[in-house]
Amino acid sequence: MNRTMRKRLSRRSLLAGAGAAAAGLTIVPRLGWSAEEAKLNFYNWDTYIGETTLDDFKAASGIEVKMDLFADNDELFAKLKEGNPGYDVIVPTNDYVERMITAGMLEPLDHSKIPNIANITPVFRDAAFDPGRRHSLPYMWGTIGIGYRKSRVSATPDSWKHLYESDEYSGRIAMLGDGSTIVGIGLKYLGYSYNETDPARIKEVEELVIRQKPHIKAFAEDNGQDLLISGEVDLTMEWNGDILQVMAEDDDIGYSVPKEGGLLWEDTLAIPKGAPHPENAHRFIDFILDAEVGAAIADFIYYATPNEAAKQHLSAEYLDNPAIFPPPSVVEISETDKYLGEEHQRLIDETWTRIQAG
Amino acid sequence: MEGWRTNRRVFWTFFTPPTAWLVLFFLAPLALVWGFSFGEKRGLVEIAINGTLENYVRALDPLYLRIFAKSFWFAALTTLICLAVGFPVAIAITFAPSRWKPILLLLTILPFWTNLLIRTYALIAVLRTRGYVNFTAEWVWEKTNAALGWVGLGDLQLVGERFEPFQMLYNNTAVVFGLVYVHLPFMVLPLYAALDRLDRSYLEASLDLGAGQIRTFASVVVPLALPGIVSGVIITFIPALGSFLTPDLLGGTDSQMIANVIERQFKSANDWPFGAALSFILMYVTFFALALRAVTSRGRSAMEAA
After folding, report:
1. Nearest Cα to B55, choosing from B279, B301, B285?
2. More confident residue, A330 or B297
3. Chain A from 194 to 253: CB within 8 A of any B CB
4. Chain B residues near residue A172 by CB distance under 8 angstroms
5. Which of A221, A234, A351 to mutate to test binding with chain B, by most B CBs within 10 Å of its CB?
6. Do domains A2-141+265-325 and A143-263+334-357 have the same CATH topology?
């Protein structure tokens, strides 16, 4: 799935890279505990937790957290597929939550043990991929939008039209080189659902993109932000996290989620089946959803927090950044992608092959 | 020690480990993938190998045949350019003073010390709109413009009103260029090996007997270097045909090669049986090329024996 392509490099990632390699080698003991010891095994993305969060949790609860890192959802999924090697809390992305629920890999959450659920922004208290949030709670979220060079556009590109059906920026456009994203966003532009399965509507997108091809410079292989910062293109479809990186280096770069809405991704906190310390896991999730803890994490990793109560502790610079928080009206009509079955997957792949061959 | 050829125990001691290695880590996985190509997907992760030919039939869809054809064309063009560029290089190394040879050979294989991905990104940094080629071209343009202005021709704008950077990346030319850049050493090394063995007295004889340089090259050097040419062509063509990184990073919107399609089947499309069928179609072509090579070299040794 497209989510595996997402890059998690933040400004701090280079430092943490070496640590990640070392942490990956450590073996987590596979043991069941009747009376829970004061330990917790956390399986997380690289550079995706606050600077002192784990120490703070130990100070508050006496529970020692050991964190292992994974690079993408495929790795997380593969590691847990053959049985949980001892993790208590994991951070899967929405579409993988859906798959893991289907495969019976997640432990249901006991909401009564997580009072801080009250802090969550109402939009995130329910989710199409996890009805009633029985298996997952939101951790961070983001979008796909248009990264652009401010000095080279006539106005803020507020419609997918600029990428899909316009020659205004001919030859200065890059799109994400991923079939399901190109088709999904194309469907959004045409006013359908991101998760539309009607082959006729998908065909419409195919024809639209093939017509637009002469104006597109490249289908970027997860490096649209590089093309943007090096001046190769002036508009690129990208994940907000990637654009945030280059915005930090270049003031002339902006980000907008078009008015038609786009793709919303959500990373979640979940407890995998067979977790050795489920009580501690609930305490840990509740701790992360605390207003101040959530704020400290968001301030450090600079992704959008779904924790409404945390916002009062966060700076205006963070809250007003359009690459972190797009306008609420746009967020409302954006969608998360759903796993729509293998037949659909094949249709999308063939469409994508035809787009590139056409 | 004399009897090692006949001593069974010694024979098995030396025979077993490499054979086991080959079977375990090469033949077995390959056989599994070959099996997948006759299989069918059942749900998310399961594949049932049931002897279906559906994957091969699907691969014969004009959509995929066109991509195969395009990949063959890219790989053939790459091989041809590598041959045209590599031959003079190999000749130069062959005739270089002997103390230079190791250094020249080292320079030829030096790129292999750097990862392909890094080399490709380096190429991007050289060729992109704000890359080193365009920086140089812009500098030349500015100097020319200034010189023209200085001799009083500035108003004519002979070199254009302003510098227009070359668009060298994100098209099919860039892909072929990138493939040539990556595969050139594969061509130079076997050519050099063949040319280095070549008996110089043949060249002298040819020249003494009145053949010109071109005639000597065409009638003496090329036939004698033919095994090297064939090896070079094969080991350039095959990996070029299976490239996916180069078209991914340097290509434009219509540069996809068959290996890109294959890669997707094992990743985002999650259709291993179809990916396996596509890979094995490439593999059959490879086997065919190697068989052709075996036949030509057998013909050659038969000729030499006669």
Report:
1. B279
2. A330
3. 213, 216-219, 221, 223, 230-232
4. none
5. A221
6. yes
- Contacting B residues, span 159-198, partner chain A, CB-CB under 8 Å: 167, 169-170
Contact criterion met (CB below 8 Å) for A177 and A353: no
Q: What does the pLDDT look like over B47-67, one tens digit per residue?
A: 889 999 999 999 999 999 999
Q: Is B256 within 8 Å of A353 when comparing Cβ atoms?
A: yes
Q: Which of residues 84-103 of A touch B (CB under 8 A)?
A: 99, 103
Domains of chain B listed by start with CATH number: 61-128+168-305 (1.10.3720.10)
* B130: phi then psi, degrees, rounded to nearest 5: -105, 55
ipTM: 0.87
Tens digit of each residue's pLDDT (9 = 90 or more) over A344-357: 989 999 999 999 99
| Helix runs in B198-271, H state only | 200-208, 213-216, 222-241, 245-250, 258-266
Q: What's the CA dihedral at A169, A171, A173, A176 to 10 degrees?
A: 150
Whether residues B169 and A352 touch (CB distance < 8 A) is answered with no
**Closest C-alpha to A270, from A253, A256, A291, A284:** A284
Looking at the complex, report in whole angstroms how far the Cα of residue A2 sits from the nearest Cα belonging to chain B: 7
| pLDDT number for residue A257 | 95
Which residue of A342, A348, A355 is the best one to mutate when testing the B interface, meaning the one whose CB has the most B CBs within 10 A?
Answer: A342
In chain A, which residue's Cα lies nearest the Cα of B252? A218
pLDDT in tens, A190-214: 999 999 999 999 999 999 999 999 9
The percent of residues in chain A predicted with pLDDT above 90, rounded, is 73
Fold classification of A143-263+334-357 is: D-Maltodextrin-Binding Protein; domain 2 (3.40.190)
Facing A218 at nearest CB: one of B44, B67, B253? B253
Give the integer Cα–Cα distance in Å for A229 and B125: 12
Contacts of B249 in chain A (CB under 8 A): 221, 223
DSSP state string for A143-178: EEEEEEEGGG-SS---STHHHHS--TTTT-EEEES-
Q: Locate the chain A residue with the closest alpha carbon to B247.
A: A221
CB contact under 8 A, B254 and A232: no
Do A349 and B254 make contact, defined as CB atoms within 8 angstroms?
no
- pLDDT tens digits, one per residue of A286-296: 999 999 999 99
Give the C-alpha distances (Å, rounded to integers) separating B68 from A129, A201, B190, B245.
Answer: 39, 28, 27, 17
Strand partners, A66: A41
Is the alpha carbon torsion for B43, B44, B46, B47 positive or negative? positive
pTM above 0.95?
no
The CATH number, out of the four listed (3.40.50.150, 3.30.420.40, 3.20.20.80, 3.40.190.10), of the domain defined by the range A2-141+265-325: 3.40.190.10
Question: Across chain B, what does the average pLDDT equal?
Answer: 89
Residues A217, B248: C-beta atoms closer than 8 Å: no
Compute the distance between CA of residue B170 and CA of residue B240 in angstroms, rounded to an integer: 18
Per-domain residue ranges for chain A?
2-141+265-325, 143-263+334-357
- Whether residues A213 and B249 touch (CB distance < 8 A) is answered with no
